[in-house]
Request: fold
Amino acid sequence: MIDDTMTDRPIAQQEFLRAAMSTLDMTPDEFAARIGSTTRCLDNWLLPSDAKGFRELDGVAWKFIREILEDQGKNA
Reply:
C-alpha cells in the first residue's frame, strides 16, 4: 500500500500514480475512467515535473486515489 498523508507527499506524483494503477491492476485508460479523468490529463500527471505539459495533481485527487486504494485493500 502507498504510504503518504494528505498534506505530505513523500513520493513523486508519477510514482504514486503508477503504483496506484499497478495495485488496482488497471491500464491508464481504466484508471483515468475510474478517477473521473481523461487519459490525456493522466498522461500530463505522469510526465516528469520539468516537462512542458506536466500538471500537478491536486490534494483532492491524492486523497480520492488513496481512498480508492484503501477500499481496494479492505475488499481484497
About this structure: Helices lie at 13-24, 28-34, 39-46, 59-75. The chain has a mean pLDDT of 88. DSSP finds four helices and no strands in the chain.
